[in-house]
Amino acid sequence: MSIFEYFLVFLIFNSFLFMIVRYIDQVQKESKRVLEFQANHDQLTALPNRYYLEMCFPLWQERIGDRYSVFYLDMDNFKIINDRYGHSVGDAILVELARRLQSSCPEDTIVVRQGGDEFIMLAPYCDIKKLHQFAEIIISQLNKTIRIESLEFSLSGSIGVAISDRHNHALGELLQKADLAMYEAKRARSGFAFFSDKLQQISNERAFIEGALRNAMTNNQMYMVYQPQIHAESGLVVGVEALIRWIHPLRGMVPPDRFIPVAESSGQINAIGDFVIDTSFREISEIHSSYRSLRISVNVSVRQLLNEQFQSYLNSKSTEYGISPTNIVIEITESLFIEDLEQIYNLLMQIRNNGYNISLDDFGTGYSSLNVLRKLPINEIKVDKSFVHDILIDSQDNALIRSIIGIGRSLNIPTLAEGVEELEQVLSLKTYGCELFQGYFFAKPMNIENLKNYLIHFTPYEYQTSQEIVDD
Length: 472
Fold this sequence. Notes:
Number of helices: 18
Strand content: 15-25%
Helix content: 40-55%
Distance between the termini: 138 Å
């Protein structure tokens, strides 16, 4: 071979080698790019993930400045979609939702999938009016129908907003504030809420209560009281509602409406619920030999109801203390049924089939009342005391009370009015057809010893109008 031929072979070989090396380099670069993208982005929606946010936030903040806002979005009841239609449908909805969020955001906004059905958005401004408009745009995007295969979904979500108000405001702190605001929006069902100092105080109080709850029962700080329930026609005591009380050594009396929601969110509600059932059944069993027909009503959280051990525990305590299920009323709050009506229905049917009674508490305060009554196995409707309070002076409350009692009568479901404090309220409610009363007019909640004394000296109520009392 000539020198030229050797050179040509050398040139071809090196060119080929160069192409191989270049190809390998390109493959490696592409693989690196793909791996980096996978590490920094959500695989389902292709949105940036939390790792990307933490990595790129300093550069974004340097470009935007100190005036920006954090949005924390959490979908409402999204678990129901996954449970009923499968995760493939739920995933398709999240993909479409991610697309809508990206297309709706202003320039320089970072949209991140936090995980599950939660999203974070960093908006490059903090003008309150603009933030309101942006939040409303997000909510409108959620509400627009999403079509997946032959199904249609209209979603809702809760948004918390936190505003950066100082130099080098830590991202983690803002995210925590936005998260607090989101839970406030979810609680108030307001769509969105802004973080405030008041919310921080509420959060601090919740944290204190959560910590103090862990020792409340072991330190005997909790006890039960009982409020009598009176039959409208006979004037007799037909039952009592068991109510939990907590006296903290430093704070004094802590109302149930302050610690029960904390117990539910912190996972302590099952232990408290077991305490209520065990203590109230044991104490009521002490007087059941003389008052066999006296029923006892206990409040049960939906989260407690969903606990796999709840029904077996209820049955075991009913048997242990010799209280027939027919004398036990399980009170469920209406507003929580929307979480999964079908699952709740199945659980309540099991309880009803075991002989227990079901009472729908705080009726009228939710927005699914008629649907709940129509679908669930309810033995009793408890009219919320907020409606009873002003029936003598508020025509709307009066009309609502009449409607609720009328609905109950048409469905053959007895009604019990809570918060009855005046004779005139008793007489009006009795005229409307209310079957049972509970309130301070008859008796305040009392401990078991005072209840025993109350029952021993009890005489049936005889209702008279104010004029009749004067005439007598």
